Amino acid sequence: MTQKPSNAFIGASWIALLAGMTAYNVGLWNATMPLNEKGYYFTILLYGLFAAVSLQKTVRDQLEGIPVTNIYYGLCWFATLSAVLLLAVGLWNATLTLSEKGFYAMAFMLSLFAAIAVQKNTRDSRLDGPAAGSAAEPPLPRLD
After folding, report:
1. What share of the chain is helix, strand, coil (3-state, %, to 5)?
2. What's the CA gap between 72 and 7, in Å, rounded?
3. In a domain, 92, yes or no
4. Is the CB of residue 51 less than 8 Å from the CB of residue 80?
5. Number of domains in the chain
6. Residue 19 lies in a domain
7. Per its UniProt entry, which superkingdom is the organism in (predicted)?
8. Does some domain include residue 67?
């Protein structure tokens, strides 16, 4: 049985996500690197966020007995790890100070962690909501 997350944890998760993403993007905006390099780092952030949320969902689905194919599960792990690796390689080869490299790495990891927490909170809140078919939430239409 899943407990509904507290409003404080939901708020903290959203604040962490917005803080991480905002800090990372403000850092990119103010950086003195070429536009194509800024685009690389921005794309890695978006890729990493999507991959981390997708991985969290597949892990959670498996724990709840919802079928997940092994290929998709493996792709989620590959995507998440490759996003972190691509950021690490980019920062390793960047002509940034160590403090700037650390800033981007920490803002990136905060964003990934917070995205997972926000997705978990959203799912947990929805699971504890009104039952499907009740007056508050109409049943979903069949697609077959």
Report:
1. 75, 0, 25
2. 32
3. yes
4. yes
5. 1
6. yes
7. Bacteria
8. yes
Q: How many CA atoms lie within 13 A of 31 on its CB side?
A: 26
pLDDT by residue for the chain (144 residues), tens only, comes to: 567 888 898 899 999 999 999 999 999 999 888 899 999 999 999 999 999 999 999 998 888 888 889 999 999 999 999 999 999 999 999 888 899 999 999 999 999 999 999 998 888 887 655 444 444 444 555 564
> Is 83 within the bounds of a domain?
yes
Instruction: Give residues with Cβ within 8 angstroms of 50, minimum separation 6.
Output: 79
Q: Domain of residue 69: give its range.
A: 13-124
DSSP-derived secondary structure for 33-77: S-HHHHHHHHHHHHHHHHHHHHHHHHHHHHHTT----HHHHHHHH
